[in-house]
């Protein structure tokens, strides 16, 4: 289930964040920097997906502004809430997506 690289579509499915939002966040947050392959397509690593999930939590769930989320990511903000690690949330979302697709095939 673990992969070295994920496409923007796969990241969008895993995180429930639209592709255009991912591209925008890439321009705003220096911590989000997916590489591009020879064809020019973005390829995300595990660390990039963890950043996306953290941004989603801050911006969409906790209603931070992009500037506030940037400060939290850079350590200047006050967000120190560590209830569930982001990597675990990512793994759980991937499993949920896999099971959903499996259930659709049944």
UniProtKB/TrEMBL annotation:
For the keyword DNA-binding, the answer is: yes
Question: What superkingdom heads the lineage?
Answer: Bacteria
Q: Which UniProt keywords apply?
A: DNA-binding
Which residue ranges does the record assign to the HTH merR-type domain?
A: 5-75
- Keyword Chloroplast listed? The answer is no
Q: Name one GO molecular function term.
A: DNA binding
SMART domains recorded: HTH_MERR
* Cross-referenced InterPro entries: DNA-bd_dom_put_sf, MerR-type_HTH_dom, MerR_fam
- Please give the name of this protein: MerR family transcriptional regulator
Which lineage is the organism of this entry classified under, starting from the top rank?
Bacteria, Pseudomonadati, Balneolota, Balneolia, Balneolales
């Amino acid at each position: 289930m673990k992969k070295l690289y994920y496409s923007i579509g796969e990241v969008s499915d895993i995180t429930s964040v639209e592709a255009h939002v991912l591209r925008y966040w890439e321009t705003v947050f220096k911590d989000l920097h997916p590489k591009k392959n020879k064809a020019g397509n973005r390829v995300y690593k595990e660390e990039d997906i963890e950043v996306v999930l953290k941004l989603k939590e801050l911006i969409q769930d906790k209603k931070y502004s992009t500037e506030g989320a940037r400060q939290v990511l850079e350590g200047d903000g006050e967000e120190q809430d560590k209830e569930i690690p982001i990597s675990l949330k990512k793994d759980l979302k991937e499993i949920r997506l896999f099971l959903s697709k499996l259930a659709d095939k049944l």
